[in-house]
């Protein structure tokens, strides 16, 4: 007999939506939507990562887990707190070139847009050229880059160089599992003209964005 929290994690690990929404609704009577995501759902995703690392899951199964996570986040989204939307600024958001992971990035989009930001989400595997083109068209106040692979951290260094060479100097917000504050400061920020800030999670991303726009 699993507890509610264990069941929520297990939907992600098993990659199933059978019973998911009912348990999410029950969880919503006790917890805030973001606490459900950051707690049991992320615990499930961490377990998926661990099993995948040990070759106990194949990519197709991890994709099922990602589908369950996306369905859960979509179900919780309408219940999230929304600030009165006085537009705080426009942010271009992308997962860097070579990387398909987008659950974290899309969570950042939800949280920022619920809190008064206009988000232009360029999607996944976004090369610097596309970012530069979108920057010129949209004139955002900041650029958000996400990437989970070790090689994506390196790709952020290249992206920062390309943006700088294009004359762009708005603040950049970076996040994702393979990144650290030190890597951001010592490797990415050095290649860029403007500020580069590391967000450890989506809420921290919002805090940093708020600091920039205040
Ligand atoms: Co892949 N994957 N994956 N994967 N995957 C990881 C990242 C990995 C750590 C798993 C592992 O081996 N343990 C590993 C990376 C190894 C490495 O480089 N060190 C890995 C690998 C190897 C791969 C493939 C290469 C596998 C293969 O094909 N052989 C392949 C890569 C393809 C590619 O990108 N070119 C691949 C593919 C996939 C799927 C497609 C199956 C799927 C992604 C589906 C999707 O996103 N649509 C997937 C998944 C689901 C994972 C794990 C299990 C979970 C990632 C996730 O969604 N977490 C992951 C293991 C893990 O992280 N534990 C893994 C939940 C999400 C909410 O968290 O994205 O970290 P996260 O976001 C966090 C913070 O990082 C932060 O905020 C969020 C929390 O609030 N954040 C930001 C993120 N971006 C931000 C931006 C910001 C601010 C904060 O501002 C702009």
Automatic annotation (TrEMBL):
Coiled coil: none annotated. Residues 88-214 form the B12-binding domain. It comes from the Bacteria. Residues 1-88 form the B12-binding N-terminal domain. Methylcob(III)alamin binds at residues 98-102, 146, 202. Catalyzes the transfer of a methyl group from methyl-cobalamin to homocysteine, yielding enzyme-bound cob(I)alamin and methionine. Subsequently, remethylates the cofactor using methyltetrahydrofolate. Modular enzyme with four functionally distinct domains. The isolated Hcy-binding domain catalyzes methyl transfer from free methylcobalamin to homocysteine. The Hcy-binding domain in association with the pterin-binding domain catalyzes the methylation of cob(I)alamin by methyltetrahydrofolate and the methylation of homocysteine. The B12-binding domain binds the cofactor. The AdoMet activation domain binds S-adenosyl-L-methionine. Under aerobic conditions cob(I)alamin can be converted to inactive cob(II)alamin. Belongs to the vitamin-B12 dependent methionine synthase family. This is Methionine synthase. The gene is metH. The chain holds residues 622 to 835 of 1148 of the full protein.
